[in-house]
Amino acid sequence: MSDIYTLTFVNNSNNNWDFCCYQQDPNINIPDVMSLAWFAFPVAPTTVVSFSWEINYQFVWSQMGQLAAGVKFSASQKWDANLSTNNSIDFTRKPNKAFTFQNQMSAGVPGTLFINQDETIPEKTAAVGINMSILGAPIGAGSGTFVVPAQPNITASFSPHPTYWVTFGQFTPGQVLDTKQITKKAEIAFPVNVYDMVAILGSDNKWKVTSTQALTQAFLASGDKHAHALLLDYDLVK
Predict the structure, then answer these.
(1) How far apart are CA 226 and CA 223, in angstroms?
(2) Which of 26, 71, 96, 226 has a CA that sits 20 to 30 A from residue 214's CA?
(3) Separation of alpha carbons 96 and 105, rounded Å
């Protein structure tokens, strides 16, 4: 059983925002690869929201047109995968024009996920990629993390080593992101053997990232009997 990671978002700003978590991966060198709004949820001031996930991968695809920033990706199929076995799958379009995955197997190359697109795949009609499943995700969340435009006779290979990022603004789950244009962001780096992190957006609209353990220690040191108030007082997080 894999470890469960949890990220808690605290909106201590004065605005209603959509909290968005997405992944980036500098090791995925696939042309046109795009990150998605992996988790996006509206959060009012003084509100706390959490979500959890395991590092369990899935193959995903969606029938759509041009893959561009702002377009929503909604997974039509999710097939469980892992990096050692069941890490290769075929993507095809049937004679009735229905797209589907088939022939999942081991590629014999651990550490990489392969999507083999055959000659039936037309250009600019679908996108394929991978997802990391969210536990108890709301509808639409966790539809994908990285996607690329589908192409005929191309194998898309993903060797994921993701980093986690948060931002705020107006987002919907599955939205294709132009991560180079996102400026109000912060990286969520999980230290070794730490699985619970907190991202606090302050009244100055700046991020403060800490661990739940550090928050607990600050709470105990402060003598404050109101843990919720401590969460919202990001100045107590050093």
Answers:
(1) 9
(2) 26
(3) 25
* 205-223 pLDDT per residue, tens: 999 999 988 877 776 676 6
Instruction: Specify whether the CB–CB gap between 86 and 175 falls below 8 A.
Output: no
| CA end-to-end distance (rounded Å), the chain | 33
What single letter denotes the amino acid at residue 108?
A: G
Query: What's the confidence (pLDDT) of residue 35?
Result: 95
The closest alpha carbon to 188, from 17, 44, 50, 42, belongs to 50
Strand partners, 8: 50, 198
CA 104 to chain centroid, in Å, comes to 23
pLDDT single digits (tens) 147-193: 999 999 999 999 989 999 999 999 999 999 999 899 999 999 999 99
Q: Which amino acid is at 116?
A: N
The neighbouring-strand residues paired with 209 are 199
